[in-house]
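To close the section, here is one more complete example, presented without commentary so you can practise reading it yourself. The ligand is zinc ion.
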Amino acid sequence: MIGLLLFLQIAVSHPALVVRDGPAQVMVAVTTSGGERTVRADALMSAMGGALVNAPNQRFTLVLFRGRLELADGIPFARLDTVMIPLARPPVVRGGFLYLPYQLVSEIIPRYGGGYFYDRAARELRTFTTVVRRPPAQRPPPVATTRPPPPVVRSSEKRIVVIDPGHGGRDQGMSGPIGSSPWFIEKDVVLAIGKKLAASLRREGVEVVMTRTTDTLIALSDRGHIANRSRGDVFISLHVNAPGSSNAAGARERGFETYFLAEAKTADARRVEEMENEAVKFETGADAPKGDPLSFIITDMAQNEHLRESSELAQTIQLGLIDVHPGPNRGVNQANFAVLRGSYMPAVLIELGFGTNRSEATFLTDDGNQARLTNQIAESVVAYLARYESRVGGTR
Ligand SMILES: [Zn+2]
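Output:
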């Protein structure tokens, strides 16, 4: 009887969800919406060591270790690759936060997320993946000699990564930190980091082309041309962030983020996109509700392949940086960067931190930190290339 009372009380007050990874556990608040249990997506992803990615039009991706679930505000479906998973209730955005129906925790993530188990009695989401996220201090030394050979095998099939250290020459990029005479110059720091990234990637057996190795100015459009001429497989532009204003609040801005290009930008891709969007009108009827599941699928299919690849590359890099960067994690974002526009390959732009913030400027100029960051980025790129390789079957 006491047990039953206890159970009833618990059911009403919604105790927190426990996310357990080995001995580590994090509590995630469970809230109620329309009488249904919900959890905040950002809190859940941070507890699970995953990431919440915001896309335009109130669409979201939950990045888990072995998969990505795509969601849209008010739409009772989750998408995993090409599989549409019906949900009892839609995720909803309230007060700027995405709230997930509890079914995602109790059924969807355990079934489709890979490596998760939900214990109903304990209200515990457990990970049984062998991947343990270590705090930076316990990471192995940057150059691990025991690492298995890189997946890129024959030299004739070596993958090529184009590294683009931003700015250069007359274009200094940002300078900082705010409140002192500027000693942090973006063009110099990203060149130093770019060179270290090149070395890290070459150690992994990847070929590297750099858009610049000296303090020279290269037009944005030329950076893409260099990438295309060298037949790169991946394009990575390196930058350092600065806030919108140089006041005290601006000086406190910190964190790293990875961008990928927002829209199909070749004239042909635009034409196809417009055409496909036109078709949606006919297929769903002119009065189809905004965010109709069908238009959600069709718009997605109209996106070009590189976008999806770029987004995955960006997510892989961003997730990896969580381990080595003091943060905060500002997430993966889409933006329409001119430098990414001209390259016909998966392309991302990393904002490595804020050079306007004293502590991040110090962090980013430290040799050891630069090595840890670039080793981690290289590891992510190699992991991405291995997955890419398995998708395309090693053909170019
Ligand atoms: Zn920049």
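Once you have examined the tokens, check your reading against these statements. The longest helix spans residues 367-392. Residues 166-167, 173, 186, 239 surround zinc ion (CB under 6 Å).
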